[in-house]
Amino acid sequence: EGAELATGGSRRGIVVSTLAEAHFFAAGGFDDILYAFPVPRWRLAECSELAQRLQQFQVLLDSPQGLEMLLQNPLPGGKRWLVWLKLDCGNARAGIRPTDPEALALARAIAQGSPELVTLVGVYAHCGNTYGCRDIPAIQAIARDTTAAVLEFVTS
């Protein structure tokens, strides 16, 4: 019910952190889901099934190896992998640092490589480093730093 309220009844544009959540929401009629963790090889078949079943099932990438894995495992029926480049703006959990020279090269490889197989949707950053914050100003500082890092990256 909460997700339906949050999406204004559209049942679109939700983010999940596990594939169990993706299956739960898909079974509930949600057809636009972002799996907010770089796709591990051992979850590729499950992600492929969701991508084929839903109107939009989006995934994160944070490495050239992840891109190569998707390119080597195209979706059938004219569907494409819809990917977001996962940036690590201080959380140190997953993603590529936006200041890493490889980050821009990876974004270009996704965007210009084989768009009929893998399409770059955007960049994604998660402020998980706010979890340890003790007050609102600390959270706001992390949000400002993350926003600045993402904006600098996308305008490079």
Automatic annotation (TrEMBL):
One of its GO terms (molecular function) is D-serine ammonia-lyase activity. InterPro entries: Ala_racemase_N, D-amino_acid_metab_enzyme, PLP-binding_barrel. GO terms for biological process: D-serine catabolic process. It holds the Pfam family Ala_racemase_N. Residues 9-130 form the Alanine racemase N-terminal domain. SUPFAM superfamilies: PLP-binding barrel. It comes from the Eukaryota. PANTHER family: D-SERINE DEHYDRATASE, ZGC:162816-RELATED. This is DSD1 dehydratase. It comes from Setophaga kirtlandii. The gene is Dsd1.
